[in-house]
DNA sequence: AAGTTTTTTTCGAATTTCGTAAAAAAAGGA
DNA sequence: TCCTTTTTTTACGAAATTCGAAAAAAACTT
C-alpha cells in the first residue's frame, strides 16, 4: 500500500463532509478529472483506507441511553470476551486497553431498563468477565470520524 | 419529526453496509420506486436522522496510537473543557459521563510522542482539568455505527 | 363520504458514473 | 541524460443514476 499523498487526503477531507458528493464535483473542486478521483477512490477503498457509511443519530433512533463500560476480564479470556461483546448490535465499540480496564466498550440502548438488562443478563452470561464499571453518558459533545488532516497537524 | 417506519429502517440498514449504493438499487431491493427512496432519504437527512460520511481506518492514516482518556474537571468548568477538547481534530469523541470520570474522550495520534505531547502540553493548558487517566488502546475489535436494527432487537 | 394533505409513482431531461483507450507523467535502469 | 517501463491522468461515448415536477394513490380529517 502506497503512502497517501496530498490529493488523497483532500479527497478524504471532502468526503468527510459529505460522503455522497459526486466524483465530478470533487474533481471540479480539486482541479483534476473525474477519472482521477474515481481511480483514487477505487484504490483507497481497495486498500481499506476508508469505507462509505452513514452516521445515524442514536437519539433520533430512540437510543436515548448511551454508556461506556470498562471491563475486567479473567486472565486468558479477554479475546473471547471481546468477540462475544462485538456480536451485539447495541455495542458500537470494543477495544482492548492498557490501564485500569482490560476492555472498554461503548453501547446504545433505548432505555435504562435495556441497559440494566444488558449488564445483568447479557454480560453476566459471558464467561470471563470479572467486573464491569458502567459510566452513563450525560451529554455528547463530539462524535466523528473527521480526523483526516491536511498534513499531520493532529494537535490543532 | 415523524417516527421512523419499517421502510426507513430498511433504507438505513442498507446504507449502513454501503453509504454510496444507488437509490435505484435500494428501490429495487425494497420493491418501491426510486422516487420514494429519494424522498425518504431527503426527509431523513433533513430531520438529522443520519449523515453520509466516510469511516477512515486510523491505522491506514498513520494514526497508530489510540487512547481513551478519562478526565476529572473542576466543578463548573466541565462544559468549557469539553468544548475546548472538541476543537482538536485528534479527538474524535467527547462525552460527559456519570461515574468515575466527568469527561471521557477518545483520540488518535501518530505516535506515543504525539500522545505524550497532547497530554502534557495541550491538556495541561486547558483550565479546569484536574486529572487525566490515559488508557492506551492495544487492539480494536469493533468500531461501527451499525446500530440500526429492524425492530428494537438491540440486545442480540 | 367528500375534501384535504401526504406519499408514491412516473417519466423525460440533466447529470453522473463507468469502461476503456490514448496520452501524459513519473519512475527506474543503463 | 536518454530510453524503457510502469503508473497515473485524461478523454469521451455509452450506460446508469439522479433530479424536477406532475399525476396518481393513499392516508387523514371533519
What does this protein look like?
The structure is a homodimer of 156-residue chains. With 156 residues, chain A is of the alpha+beta class. Chain A has two domains: 6-46, Orthogonal Bundle (Arc Repressor Mutant, subunit A); 59-136, Lrp/AsnC effector binding domain/regulation of amino acid metabolism (RAM) domain (Alpha-Beta Plaits, 2-Layer Sandwich). Chain A is built from five helices and five strands. Chain A has helices at residues 6-17, 23-30, 34-46, 78-86, 112-122, and strands at residues 50-56, 65-73, 91-97, 103-109, 129-143. In chain A, strands 3-4-2-5 form a four-stranded antiparallel beta sheet. In chain A, strand 3 (91-97) and strand 4 (103-109) form a beta hairpin. The two termini of chain A are 28 Å apart. Chains A and B meet through helix 1, strand 1, helix 4, strand 3 and strand 4 of A and helix 1, strand 1, helix 4, strand 3 and strand 4 of B. Strand 3 (91-97) of chain A pairs antiparallel with strand 5 of chain B, so a sheet runs across the interface. Chains A, B: Keywords: DNA-binding, Transcription, Transcription regulation. Chains A, B: One of its GO terms (cellular component) is cytosol.
Concise summary:
Chain A is α+β, with helices and mostly antiparallel strands and 156 residues long.
Structural key phrases:
homodimer; 156 residues; alpha+beta; Arc Repressor Mutant, subunit A; Alpha-Beta Plaits; 2 domains; four-stranded antiparallel β-sheet; 5 helices; 5 strands; 34% helix; elongated; DNA-binding
Amino acid at each position: 500500500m502506497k503512502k497517501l499523498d496530498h490529493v488523497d487526503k483532500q479527497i478524504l477531507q471532502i468526503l468527510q463532509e459529505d460522503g455522497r458528493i459526486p466524483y465530478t464535483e470533487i474533481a471540479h473542486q480539486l482541479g483534476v478529472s473525474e477519472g482521477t478521483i474515481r481511480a483514487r477512490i477505487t484504490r483507497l477503498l481497495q486498500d481499506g483506507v476508508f469505507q462509505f457509511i452513514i452516521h445515524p443519530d442514536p437519539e433520533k433512533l430512540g437510543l436515548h441511553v448511551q454508556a461506556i463500560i470498562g471491563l475486567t476480564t479473567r486472565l486468558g479470556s479477554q479475546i473471547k470476551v471481546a468477540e462475544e461483546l462485538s456480536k451485539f448490535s447495541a455495542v458500537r465499540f470494543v477495544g482492548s486497553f492498557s490501564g485500569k480496564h482490560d476492555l472498554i466498550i461503548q453501547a446504545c440502548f433505548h432505555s435504562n431498563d435495556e441497559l440494566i438488562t444488558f449488564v445483568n443478563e447479557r454480560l453476566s452470561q459471558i464467561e470471563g468477565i470479572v467486573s464491569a464499571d458502567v459510566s452513563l453518558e450525560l451529554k455528547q459533545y463530539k462524535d466523528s470520524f473527521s480526523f483526516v488532516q491536511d498534513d499531520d497537524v493532529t494537535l490543532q
